[in-house]
Amino acid sequence: MLVVMQSSATPDEVRAICEKIEALGFQSHSVEGTQRYAIAVTGDLRGIDTCGIDEMPGVGEIIRISKPYKLVSRESKPENTVVRFPNSEVTIGGEEFAIIAGPCSVESRAQTLTIAEKVAAAGAKLFRGGAYKPRTSPYAFQGMGVDGLKILAEVRDQFGMLIVTEAVDAEAMTAIEDYADMVQIGARNMQNFSLLKRAGRSPLPILLKRGLSATLEELLMAAEYIMSEGNRNVVLCERGVRTFADHSRNTLDLCVIPAVQKLSHLPILSDPSHATGKRDRVIPMALASAAAGANGLLVEVHHDPEHALSDGAQSLFPNQFVAMLSQLGGVLPVVHRTLNTDPPKARKAAAQVVRS
Ligand code: PEP
Ligand code: MN
User: Fold this and answer.
1) Which residues form the pocket of ligand 1, taking CB atoms under 6 Å from any ligand atom?
2) For 113-127, how does the pLDDT look when each residue is reduced to its tens digit (9 = 90+)?
3) Residues near 205 by beta carbon (within 8 Å), at least 6 away in sequence
4) Which domains are seen in the chain, by residue range?
5) Which of 163, 184, 195, 210 gets mutated to test ligand 1 (max ligand atoms within 8 A of its CB)?
6) pTM for this structure?
């Protein structure tokens, strides 16, 4: 249920409505837009009427949200969500096309800094690299942990890129919050509900990847878990789903991009690296994703993919990454998006994390 306030509503009237909602045993969430201010009511609302809220001072109208995902839905917030980062001009979900690039895993300081230098020079504003890796085999490289996070923090300081890295559990998320700017929840954890709730209490934006065989509704419900705990900064990511196809690692579901944008205000990125699994297919799928309206890309890049400890076969060489950005420059104006390939400005101060 959405309580849309009159434009003349006072802060006291808003407070009274939130108190009433909480007293009824439900949760209230402010939904601020440029056109209207509303309060979303969540909880088990089956069989519940307006409980007299429609008659309270300051209330404009009550709208029932028909979808099971409430805060994620466009019904609750018609305007696109634009995710912003403290002390940075980078946005995800606005006019600018976002590029998150870097290796699959942080393997060493030298490997990470080498790749970071190249993708920053090409114009990437967000750097990725896993310090905690979800691997099919327990004997495969599991990531460098906190030592990897320290290397990522060095990348931020030296090259000015924002850091995106994956949390495989709550403990990793707590460590990541001290070093990174955005937390990734990987495909295998898309329905790890306790991790999603923990992400909802994180001060950092969350990059939520679609599960290996998740439906669109399951993806949006996973995002609802995060938002229902208070974190509004959620970015979705299509990374391919399992099908019978054996010509690619997964099947990139391009159609999910306009489908998400119809149902939700959240940004959606495309990951052509994990979707295809093969380097020579990454650029065509990156261009197709941009044409389909994605808000940006997550792309793996490695200077020596032959020796990469994970996902070498799908990692672009740095010169291919430069070529991809140049080709994107031709596609993006068609869909009214911009690409800024100026190298990011180096920042010395590490991001400050405020824990509530
Ligand atoms: C990754 O981004 O390196 C990764 C493991 O992705 P996914 O969860 O989509 O497989
Ligand atoms: Mn990977």
Assistant:
1) 104, 130, 134, 186-188, 209, 239, 274
2) 999 999 999 999 999
3) 83, 85, 92, 181, 182, 183, 231, 233, 234, 235
4) 2-63 (3.30.70.1140), 83-354 (3.20.20.70)
5) 184
6) 0.95
